[in-house]
């Protein structure tokens, strides 16, 4: 699986570039959107996607068919993780402590499920982006992958390299946290 | 379908992850249950609101222009983030280690977390077992190797899991071995033996000794209940096992005893 160490000639590189362009350019916005939401900065997001593109070209051979978007987003995410760990020296860049904390809470989840809540959602929809941006990264990421990129549990599990059960529980918590944050906002 | 099971399956149903039969029974439940119907409507409201008001960023033209530039095969560094080209680290190895770290983190984060009064590892373990059981029951096939012959089932697990399952024949006691599958508990792959008792499915999880949350030493005799399911822990020979089922807790305890006794 390790890419060969021979140096590619210019032609081989050109071939790879056009192959990768065909694979990933249709999903460039998806990649940029994901990283922009994770990294919070336009310049960082552009740098990370650019770097991910170079990686994709370099390791084009690792694409064995299948879902090109999921393969490409996995590279983008791993590039983002590298970027975070370089920037912070942190070993657990995706706020896993926060995942733990939130998991331990597990209060009976009922931030108000009245019909008024539903009506309120539409009125307060504007604050949703803000609340989403404030979610711990691991939760923000999973809800983006599901709701914006519309990936399946299996695709998300493969992308994050976690069991499907973890995807389910983390996604449920992410949704719960968003709704709870909204309920608190409404109360406050 | 009871409310607890349905509420567990609401989100997979909402996300289109259930097979048609299970989805139909969840929908039937929702039609009759105001709480679950509201929950479902709230999920839809969240999705609608996100679609409507969460901005989707599009890649700026400057980025598209950058991607069109020829990739230098040597010479001037193209991107600030780019690793030194002379020693290209294998992408797969980097990604794999990162992803491994991330997945271990996801599975084991609570081990690093503060050892406070948290519901703790044992509760998370029970949660994993219950989710895994419900997911398997919800899936169209909960069995990867379909066989009542324990001499077929046991070797099938070789190389797939850390701890080989005992695969004990309990048909005389009314528990029929129907097969097995590989599932996850935390981030580890474990063997699950699937038994049937009448219409009830029993998942028997065979866990490594050092599974976080595994109660060591003495197994408790009775069953614990979580989300309407019974769970029973037994030591079977030299392995640790948890049985999960919608069976009555006494019957499941009897299954556990038969299992422990048969070894």
TrEMBL record, chain A:
InterPro entries tied to this protein: RNA_pol_sigma-70-like, RNA_pol_sigma-70_dom, RNA_pol_sigma70_r2, RNA_pol_sigma70_r4_t2, RNA_pol_sigma_r2, RNA_pol_sigma_r3/r4-like, WH-like_DNA-bd_sf
SUPFAM superfamilies referenced in this protein's UniProt entry, alphabetically: Sigma2 domain of RNA polymerase sigma factors (SSF88946), Sigma3 and sigma4 domains of RNA polymerase sigma factors (SSF88659)
Keywords, sorted A to Z: Sigma factor, Transcription, Transcription regulation
CDD domains tied to this protein: Sigma70_r4
Source superkingdom: Bacteria
All residue ranges annotated as the RNA polymerase sigma factor 70 region 4 type domain in the record: 127-178
One Pfam family in the UniProt entry: Sigma70_r2
Residue numbers spanned by region Disordered: 96-116
A GO biological-process term: DNA-templated transcription initiation
Gene Ontology MF term list: DNA binding; sigma factor activity
N-terminal signal peptide: none
Residue ranges constituting the RNA polymerase sigma-70 region domain according to the UniProt record: 23-87
Matching NCBIfam families: sigma70-ECF (TIGR02937)
Similarity field: Belongs to the sigma-70 factor family. ECF subfamily.
The protein's name in its UniProt record: RNA polymerase sigma factor
Organism: Hypericibacter adhaerens
Lineage: Bacteria, Pseudomonadati, Pseudomonadota, Alphaproteobacteria, Rhodospirillales
């Amino acid at each position: 699986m390790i890419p060969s160490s021979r140096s590619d000639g210019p032609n081989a590189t050109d071939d790879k570039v056009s192959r990768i362009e065909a694979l990933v350019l249709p999903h460039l916005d998806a990649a940029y959107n994901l990283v922009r939401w994770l990294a919070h900065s336009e310049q960082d997001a552009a740098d990370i996607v650019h770097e991910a593109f170079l990686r994709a070209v370099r390791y084009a051979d690792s694409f064995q068919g299948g879902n090109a978007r999921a393969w490409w987003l996995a590279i983008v995410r791993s590039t983002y993780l590298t970027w975070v760990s370089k920037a912070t020296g942190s070993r657990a860049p995706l706020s896993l402590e926060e995942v733990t904390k939130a998991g331990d809470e597990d209060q009976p989840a009922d931030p108000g499920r009245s019909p008024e809540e539903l009506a309120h959602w539409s009125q307060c929809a504007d604050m949703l982006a803000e609340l989403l941006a404030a979610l711990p990264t691991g939760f923000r990421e999973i809800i983006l992958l599901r709701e914006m990129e519309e990936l399946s549990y299996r695709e998300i599990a493969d992308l994050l390299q976690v069991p499907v059960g973890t995807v389910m529980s983390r996604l449920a918590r992410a949704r719960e946290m968003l709704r709870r944050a909204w309920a608190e906002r409404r109360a406050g | 379908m009871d409310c607890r099971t349905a509420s567990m399956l609401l989100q997979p149903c909402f996300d289109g992850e259930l097979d048609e039969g299970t989805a139909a029974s969840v929908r039937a439940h929702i039609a009759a249950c105001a709480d679950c119907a509201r929950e479902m409507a709230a999920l839809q409201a969240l999705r609608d609101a996100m679609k409507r008001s969460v901005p989707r960023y599009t890649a700026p033209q400057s980025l598209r222009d950058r991607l069109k530039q020829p990739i230098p095969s040597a010479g001037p560094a193209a991107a600030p983030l780019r690793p030194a080209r002379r020693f290209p680290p294998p992408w797969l190895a980097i990604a794999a280690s990162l992803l491994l770290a991330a997945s271990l983190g996801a599975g084991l984060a609570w081990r690093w977390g503060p050892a406070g009064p948290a519901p703790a590892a044992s509760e998370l373990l029970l949660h994993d077992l219950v989710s895994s059981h419900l997911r398997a029951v919800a899936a169209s096939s909960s069995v990867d190797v379909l066989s009542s012959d324990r001499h077929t089932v046991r070797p099938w697990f070789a190389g797939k899991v850390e701890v080989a399952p005992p695969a004990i024949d309990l048909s005389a006691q009314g528990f029929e071995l129907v097969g097995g599958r590989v599932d996850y508990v935390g981030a580890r792959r474990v063997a699950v033996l699937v038994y049937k008792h009448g219409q009830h499915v029993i998942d028997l999880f065979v866990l490594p000794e050092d599974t976080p949350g595994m109660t060591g030493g003495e197994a408790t005799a009775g069953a614990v209940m979580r989300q309407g399911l019974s769970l029973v822990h037994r030591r079977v020979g030299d392995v640790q096992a948890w049985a999960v089922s919608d069976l009555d807790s006494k019957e499941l305890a009897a299954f556990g005893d038969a299992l422990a006794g048969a070894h």
